[in-house]
C-alpha cells in the first residue's frame, strides 16, 4: 500500500470530519471522497477511530512545525514572542480545516490510542521552545516561570480568540488582533523595565 493512499484517506477523513463531525462521519464517506476501496481503507486503518487518531498526530505535527519554524534562527525575547504568536495565528487562518480538527473536533475519548505519540510530539515542541527560552530567562529578558505557564501566557489568549473564529462565533480574521495579543504577552512574560527600554 503506497503512502499516497494513506495520505488520500487522511485528507478525505479531514474533509469529512470537518463537514459532518466525527460521530456522523462514516468509513464509506471517507472512502468515497478518497476514491479508495473498502480493502484499501482497512489495509491502512483498522477503523474510523484509528484514522482519526493518525490524522490528529499528522495535524499536530504540522502545527508544531509551524510554531518551531518561528524560532529559527533564535530571536531575542521581543521578536520571539512576536513570531510565536503570529505563527499560531497564521497557522490557524491558513490551515483552518486542520486547526478546527485539532482544536474543535478532536476528542480525548477516541484519542487514547495515540496518547503516547501525542506526548512525544508535545515534548519535542516543549524542548524546542525551552532551548530558545531558557537562555533568555537566564539573562533576565524573560520572566522565570514554568514552561507550562509560559506557553499558557504566550498562546492562551490567542487560542481563546482563535477558537471563537474556528467555531464561527467570531468572523473577523484573528490576525488583526496580533499586535494587541503580542503586547499583552510581552507584559505577561517580560520584565517591565525590559519592555520599556524599546
Automatic annotation (TrEMBL):
Keywords: DNA-binding. The keyword DNA-binding applies. Residues 26-45 bind DNA. Pfam families: TetR_N. Residues 3-63 form the HTH tetR-type domain. The keyword Oxidoreductase does not apply. PROSITE patterns: HTH_TETR_2. It comes from the Bacteria. One of its GO terms (molecular function) is transcription cis-regulatory region binding. InterPro entries: Homeodomain-like_sf, HTH-type_TetR-like_transc_reg, HTH_TetR, Tet_transcr_reg_TetR-rel_C_sf. SUPFAM superfamilies: Homeodomain-like (SSF46689), Tetracyclin repressor-like, C-terminal domain (SSF48498). This is Transcriptional regulator. It comes from Bradyrhizobium yuanmingense.
Amino acid at each position: 500500500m503506497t503512502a499516497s493512499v494513506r495520505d488520500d484517506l487522511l485528507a478525505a477523513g479531514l474533509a469529512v470530519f470537518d463537514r459532518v463531525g466525527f460521530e456522523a462521519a462514516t468509513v464509506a464517506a471517507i472512502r468515497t471522497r478518497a476514491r479508495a476501496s473498502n480493502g484499501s481503507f482497512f489495509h491502512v486503518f483498522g477503523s474510523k477511530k484509528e484514522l482519526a487518531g493518525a490524522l490528529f498526530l499528522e495535524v499536530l505535527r504540522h502545527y508544531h512545525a509551524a510554531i518551531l519554524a518561528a524560532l529559527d534562527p533564535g530571536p531575542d525575547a521581543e521578536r520571539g514572542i512576536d513570531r510565536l504568536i503570529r505563527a499560531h495565528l497564521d497557522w490557524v487562518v491558513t490551515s483552518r480545516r486542520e486547526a478546527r480538527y485539532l482544536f474543535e473536533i478532536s476528542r480525548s475519548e477516541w484519542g487514547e490510542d495515540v496518547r503516547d505519540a501525542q506526548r512525544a510530539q508535545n515534548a519535542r515542541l516543549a524542548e524546542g521552545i525551552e532551548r530558545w527560552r531558557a537562555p533568555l530567562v537566564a539573562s533576565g529578558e524573560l520572566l522565570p516561570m514554568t514552561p507550562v505557564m509560559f506557553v499558557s501566557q504566550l498562546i492562551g489568549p490567542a487560542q481563546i480568540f482563535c477558537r471563537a473564529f474556528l467555531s464561527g462565533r467570531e468572523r473577523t480574521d484573528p490576525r488583526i488582533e496580533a499586535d494587541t495579543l503580542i503586547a499583552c504577552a510581552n507584559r505577561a512574560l517580560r520584565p517591565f523595565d525590559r519592555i520599556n527600554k524599546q
